Amino acid sequence: MMSPLPADLTLVIPCYNEAANVAPLIEGVRRALEGMRWEIVFVDDDSPDGTSKAVEKAAQEDPRIRLIRRVGRRGLSSAVIEGALSSTSPVIAVMDGDLQHDEGILRDLVRPLLENHADIAVASRHIEGGDSSGLANRWRHMLSQAGIRLSQSLLPMPLSDPMSGFFAVRRPIFEQAVPKLTGTGFKILLEIVLSVPRQARLIEVPFVFRPRVSGESKLSPLVMVQFLGMLIERAFGGWLPTRFIIFAAVGLVGIAVNLLVSELARFSGAGFQVSQILGTACAILANFQLNNRITYLDRPLRGRRWLPGLCIFVIGATIGAFGNIGVAELIYDTHGHWSRASAAGAVIGVVWNYAIASTLVWR
Fold first, then answer.
1. What's the whole-number mean pLDDT along residues 120-124?
2. What is the residue-wise DSSP string for 72-129?
């Protein structure tokens, strides 16, 4: 019987292309949390497979199920933040929508928080009783282990599975962390743990990571790039934004493209000036495409917005190139130090391009 009283627990489920998993997941949660006051908030990034429709159908039958459908935006971390902030319950839990997280342990996960014995509870694959064999292949195992080792060096408290996407947190702790969260990437737990007070009480609950039944894994090299960017930001105390780090890394790829195309053009018989023009044009186009797919994944330019965005990006990059040269010449003329002048010009150029990209292109 459904309770009219406010929920004690909000379960946030970020999802993309998980239509086939919606009904069995809801049924599993009902069984696991029988007798408790709960709600589920599905945050769907406009899945083309009908995930939102599946949630809407379930919500018509059970008012404890809600949907946030995001159009033109993507990203697990930002989805979790929006879902959590849409609720008022004292405890927030997060799990994936792919059925790999065992909803059967939800009660054990959230009870210590409801009883105020802990502030954060993490479902861990790497303590006694846990198992990560559900990871799809050896590649995913390697990526997961590498991420764990890298992130553990930054953690203020012991945590065996900082890459877990299955956890619960008390609302006051979450609200303390929210202003410090970047909202980028796919590993929101790590960001939360790095943003809460050191005295926060953390416990771990073992769980078995199940094999995926339907849908496709969201883990990709892009996810790891965003994860590494977030680690670098945290290592620098937060003053270097994750998005800027990724933008700068994309710029390095652009330099490589420029050099490669210029050399290919030169070997094909083109003159120096033509080679440089071709290399620069290809580098700018490559930078634009990579930024659209990686740096600004949460707000990509599509359709009619793509060409105007490219034009603004090209104009901004051209102005930035002149600024780069001007600053470098000024410093060289003043101090006579070639490498320092070049480095200063490059820094000014990337900061300028990032400002243009973030404020005018990907607004």
1. 94
2. S---HHHHHHHHHHT---SEEEE--SSS-S-GGGHHHHHHHHHTTS-SEEEEESSSTT
Buried b (16+ CB within 10 A) or exposed e, 322-352: ebbeebbeebbeeeeeeeebbebbbebbbeb
3-state SS, residue 42: strand
Residue 219 has a pLDDT of: 57
Hey, what are 322's tokens?
């002149």
Task: Measure the CA–CA gap between 314 and 218, rounded to whole angstroms.
Answer: 31
**Crossing angle for the helix pair 221-235 and 188-195, nearest 10 degrees?**
10
Q: What is the pTM of this model?
A: 0.72
Angle between helices 306-335 and 272-290 (to 10 degrees): 120
| Tokens representing residue 52 in the block | 């939102």
Averaging pLDDT over each range in 49-58, 195-204, 215-224, which range is the top one?
Answer: 49-58
- Ranges of H-type helices in the chain: 19-32, 51-61, 76-85, 106-114, 138-152, 171-177, 188-195, 221-235, 242-267, 272-290, 306-335, 338-356
For residue 94, pLDDT beyond 90 = yes
HSE-CB of 139 using CA atoms within 13 angstroms: 6
- Residue indicated by tokens 């590649």: 139
| Mean pLDDT computed over 317-337 | 74
